[in-house]
Amino acid sequence: MKIDRLLEIIIYLLNHEKVSASVLAERFHVTVRTIQRDMVCITEAGIPVYSNHGKDGGYSILPSYKMKNCEIRRDEQQMIRQALESLASSYANETLAGLIEKYHAVSENTERQRTFFDFGIAKENQKVQQDNQILEKAIAEERLVTFTYRDAKGQESKRLVQPLAIQYKWYSWYLFAWSVPQEAYRTFKIARISEMQVTPRHADKKHEDVELLIKQADEAYSDTCVTIEVHFDRKVKSIIEEYFPDSEMEELDGEILRVWIRVPPRERLWRALLLSLGDQVKVVSPENYRNELIETAQNFLSNYDIQLSHTCDKMLKKRKDKKDE
Question: Which of 64, 65, 190, 236 is the most buried (most CB within 10 A)?
Fold first, then answer.
C-alpha cells in the first residue's frame, strides 16, 4: 500500500542524513519517478523534506525537524528492538514480524546486546497460535464467533460471542468477548476452546473502551478470590515467594511459616502446586478447601491400589523420625 511505503520512507529518512532517489527506489522496489512523486506527497503532508542535486545529492529531512520530533539514542533503539523481538518470541503474528524487519532496516545495531528475553512459553501450542490469528481477524472485521468451551470442571457448552481482545496473563492466552446470549462480558481460556468458527454475522453492539472493560472484568474476577491460611515448611519459602508474591507471611516458629494467600476458587494451578509440596504444606482454613485437597490426595493414592492407612502410618513415622534426629 502507498501509505505504508510513505511511512517507511519517512522513518528511513529520519534515520539517515541524506538518501538518493535511486537508493530509495531500489529499497522500496519502485521506480525513481515513483519516489519523486512520494516526496511531493510527504512534503504536502507537512514533513520538511528538501533535496540536493548533483553527484552527492539526495533527499533529507531538516535537522531541526528531527531534533523536534523525538531523537532516539542508540541504547533506546536497542531497548525498542529487544521489546519487539521479545514480543515475537511469544506471539506469532505476521504484522509484528514485518515491523521487526522494518525496524532493523531503519535503526542502527552497533550495541552489543546484554539482556535477552524469551517468552516462548507464551506461544503455548500450535492450535492456540492458530486460534489467536483467527480471533484477531474476527476482531478486526467485527464478526461473531461460535465455539465449544470446556470450563475448569470439564463441562462443555456452545458459545456465541463477539470477540473484543486477546490477552496473555497467568501463563496462558485468553479471549475477552461479549457473550451474545448472556448479554455480558466474559473471559475464555483459548486452550479450552474447540470447534471455533467465524460467522458471517457482524456485531451489532459497540464497545467504547475495551482496555477499561478488561480492567473492570479483572477487578471483578479478583473480588471472587478467597483467602486461605496455609502452613509451610521454611524450606519452600522461595517457592511461595515466587508463585504467591502478594501473600502475607509470618513465622510460627523456626521451621514453620504461616501464610495467607488469595486464590481463584475455580482454577486448579494453585491446588496442584500445594499438592506437589507434599508434607511441607498444610492447609489450615477454610475447612472446605482443606477437605478438598485431602480428598484429591486420597483419590490420587487410590489409583495405585495403595492402602491409605498404611501410607499414612509410614508418613507419620517418617515425620517422627525427622523430629527425633
Answer: 190
What is the value of pTM for the model shown?
Answer: 0.59
End-to-end alpha-carbon separation of the chain, Å? 76
Count CB-CB contacts under 10 A for residue 3.
8
Distances (CA, A) of 75 to 63, 79, 130: 21, 6, 35
What the block records as the C-alpha cell of 227 is 483467602
User: For 226-324, CATH number?
Assistant: 3.30.70
Strand arrangement, sheet containing 248-251: 248-251, 256-263, 226-233, 281-285
Q: What's the CATH architecture for 126-223?
A: Roll (2.30)
Reported as a single tens digit per residue, the pLDDT across 214-224 is 888 888 887 88
What is the C-alpha to C-alpha distance for residues 289 and 294, in angstroms, rounded to an integer? Answer: 9
How many residues comprise the chain?
325
Which strand (E) or helix (H) includes residue 301? helix 287-302
The correct CATH number of 2-68 out of 2.20.25.90, 1.10.3720.10, 1.10.10.10, 3.40.50.2300 is 1.10.10.10
C-alpha cell at 92: 506469532
Instruction: Spell out the domain ranges in the chain.
Output: 2-68, 74-121, 126-223, 226-324
Q: Which residues of 98-118 are buried (b: 16+ CB within 10 A; e: fewer)?
A: eeeebbeebbeeeeeeeeeee
Judge contact between 254 and 234, C-beta under 8 A: yes
Cα–Cα distance measured from residue 77 to residue 315, given in angstroms and rounded to the nearest whole number? 58
Are residues 189 and 132 in contact, defined by beta-carbon separation less than 8 angstroms? Answer: no
Give the distance from CA 36 to its chain's centroid.
42
Contact 146, 159 (CB under 8 A): yes
